[in-house]
Amino acid sequence: MRIGLKFLHMIFFLLLLGSGDFQVRGLTVTGKDGPTEALRGENVTIPCLLSGVLIPLNLQILSVVWSCKLQNGTEYKVHQFHESHHQSWRDGSHMNDRDLQQGNASLYIPNIQITDEGEYLCFVITTPHAGRATSTLHVSVTPQTTLNYDKHIEAGIPGSVFCEISNFYPEAVKVRWVKYSMNMATDSSLDRDVSLTIPLRNSDGTYNATSLLTVRQSTGIEPGDVLFCIVSHRSLKEEMTLSFIMPGWSPLKDIVFSLFAFCVITFLIYLLKKYYNKGRRPWIHTVLRFIFIASFIMIAFLIVSLIYSVVATDDVRVKIYIALSGIIISYLIGMHFDMNFWRFFKFGVPSLSEISGDRYIPHMKRTTLTCQITNFRQQEIQINVYLRRCHEIKRQLIASWDSTDQTPSNKSIKDSSTAGDQRDNKVLFLPLVEKGDENRTLLPVEMDVKITKSWFGLYNCLCSITITPSADTDDGAALSVEVEHASLQSPISVYRTLTMYKDNKPSLWRRCKKYVIK
């Protein structure tokens, strides 16, 4: 009996192959006229209704086979109901037995994917009747859209606007550009200078594409015009629209850049001034002059930009940014004067170099050390030389030179007024007696001062200090040179530690031993 029933089913399959919705001996199988639309991830029910038969149906004589035909022609079984048993080839697909008894052979498919798209065939046999119906399933993926543009794009400056469409399915997509003119209150389609890349397929079956709008002067786009990128796709019930407002000249970028540069300049001035005070290097003084001048040029540029921005813009946010920038700029300008930078950057302020000379000084032999005082005007200047030995707390004055001293050997430099004029002032200081010990004397010192005048009217001074130190008392002593000048708020000074040797000059090993052996 079973063999005969299967043979009869096969005959009905062959007879009905190639026909659509039809009726055989009263059985009618009906699908859906139009395609079933679904988005990826949704749950779908593909209809298949039976009519013209006695309800409820006897499931023992009912067979239902669902198959799918893909766009490339490949066919495969999806679900089957036969002899009251279900068999599924697609995970999650099923039919309800109660619905089958009521003549509803619809197929339920959860979490629909792109690979499920195709033409579905519902083939029904209810002995001795047979029929079939076809339904089309469309699976779509909603595109993700973003609008990007060149950072430098402004009205009148060529640039590009990118409308990026990603992760969409199917491949067919339409993009159009529309310009809305704020001045004329009209919109117009942009057809020129528009291009759409070929959609590229992703690994999950979706596609990516980019529409490019090239903005040129000939395009006729003015500041304030709104550009719309309108995307049409099968998955969208309504068109997706992205907008971009064409900017005009914005001073914000210049303000932010100038403000940042001004902050850097202020911080750099502070660091270099602090470093200069430690070492008194003349080249730092020259660099700082140019930085200081650049900072004032930056301040002028910022003020002009702020004034122009307030007049040119009606955007409240821009005005808020401008107000905040003005507060910060006012604070930074105040820092320049509160930190007395203006005194430091005045031309004619002397700079003091390090004390140069032999690193290792021989015992009881005449040694000359030099330092330079540069870039000061013809004003009162005084040079003091101090010595502080290792066992002493206070330093002792061992030599002094003053430009106001009218002695023949140390006449004021005010008499020198021509460019390139040079004076030599040699002063001999006898050894000074230490207090409380008339047998011990301080360091014998000879100081030679040479002053020259540059073409710019600034003076340079070379101070040579000749000493005859003793290794027993002066090894490790600190020799310092201090300069007092009318342009200085406080004296500037530089010091050097004396390193002595008695017999022979220390070898390389003796010089490095203290760093190698702890």
Could you walk me through the main structural features you see in this protein, from its secondary elements to its overall organization?
The chain is built from eight helices and 31 strands. It has a six-stranded mixed beta sheet with strand order 3-11-10-6-7-8. It is elongated, with a radius of gyration of 48 Å. Helix 4 packs antiparallel against helix 5 (316-338). With 518 residues, the chain is an alpha+beta fold. It has four domains: 2-139, Immunoglobulins (Immunoglobulin-like, Sandwich), CATH 2.60.40.10; 144-245, Sandwich (Immunoglobulin-like), CATH 2.60.40.10; 252-344; 351-508, Immunoglobulin-like, CATH 2.60.40.10.
What's a quick, concise take on this entry?
The chain is of the alpha+beta class and 518 residues long. Helices cover 23% and strands 36% of the residues.
Topology:
Blueprint lengths: L1 H15 L6 E2 L2 E4 L5 E4 L4 E3 L2 E3 L10 E8 L5 E8 L2 E4 L8 H5 L5 E3 L8 E9 L2 E12 L3 E6 L9 E10 L5 E8 L4 E5 L3 E3 L3 E2 L5 E9 L10 E7 L7 E6 L5 H29 L2 H31 L3 H23 L2 H4 L6 E2 L8 E2 L4 E10 L4 E8 L7 E7 L19 E8 L15 E9 L5 E9 L3 H4 L3 E8 L6 E6 L2 E2 L6 H9 L2
Parallel strand pairs: 3-11, 22-31
Antiparallel strand pairs: 1-2, 2-5, 4-9, 6-7, 6-10, 7-8, 10-11, 12-13, 13-18, 14-15, 14-19, 16-18, 17-18, 19-20, 21-23, 23-28, 24-25, 24-29, 26-27, 27-28, 29-30
Helix pairs in contact: 3-4, 3-5, 4-5
